[in-house]
Amino acid sequence: MKITVAPSAGFCFGVKRAINLAIDSASKFDSELNTLGPIIHNPQVVSQLKDKKIFPVDTIDEIKSDKVIIRSHGIKSDVENKILQKNITIIDATCPFVKRSQEYIKKAFQEGYFIIMVGDDKHPEVQSVISFADSARYKVVNRIEELEQIKFNEKIALISQTTQDINFYLSIICEVFKKTSKEIIVFNTICDATKLKQEEAALLSSESDIMIVVGGYNSANTNKLKNICKKIQNNTYHIETEAELEYKWFKNAENIGITAGASTPDWIIEKVVEKIRSFDIL
Ligand code: SF4
Fold first, then answer.
1. pLDDT tens per residue, range 139-164
2. Gap from CA of 9 to ligand 1 centroid (Å)
3. CA 64 to CA 272: how far, in whole Å?
4. For the whole model, what pTM was predicted?
5. Coil, strand, or helix at residue 256?
6. Which of 24, 100, 116, 140 is the most buried (most CB within 10 A)?
């Protein structure tokens, strides 16, 4: 049995930066420090951070000190204003790629474009980015059919969630071009870490008998990786931890591919590899 882990599997630059900033800030602080929402979409990491006195809260009213950490996905502009009104200091761990998307949206909105954001409207990153435009001036789409709800009688700006599947974004762009001859601007907002992970996952899926995708069930980029792998290799399994691996999946498998979402720490990936190796000697 040959086990190959995609070189880019696991923490991306934005997640590493957010966690380091949180740990560093907590070490300088005596009491509990809160993140608004879980700092990353990985329950095992969020649970470990509690040992370092870093606790997630869901609302501004639950913040227990005069400081709060903003997670890598960023926050909505009105929530940011409310925090500042309460004189709470923001420790901003928003990923620079998400910040860049926020700047693009502000610019497109100010310049009068109708904005189409390609992503999941319930995802915190999408909610934070799109909050910089008026709700009457955008539509978030997650399926091509949703474009039918747009009038296409004005100039259009297209932007994607940073973790979007590049091929899906391209298919939406093509469809929009077919629907209007008005001006269109396209922002390339899929982050470099996501592009690399998706390319490696697709290649590894084509070379493997089984693909294991490791990451939080609530992690958008992990779910995208699972979908990309599944299209190429039907024997694709999404797990959060090694405890979910089943021996029967690996019977007759020679080449095992592993990839992991941007919020999955190395120690979880290592445990997955270890458990699969233990199946090999059964
Ligand atoms: S996946 Fe990309 S945008 Fe999201 S935190 Fe990582 S580097 Fe930033």
1. 999 999 999 999 999 999 999 999 99
2. 13
3. 36
4. 0.87
5. strand
6. 116
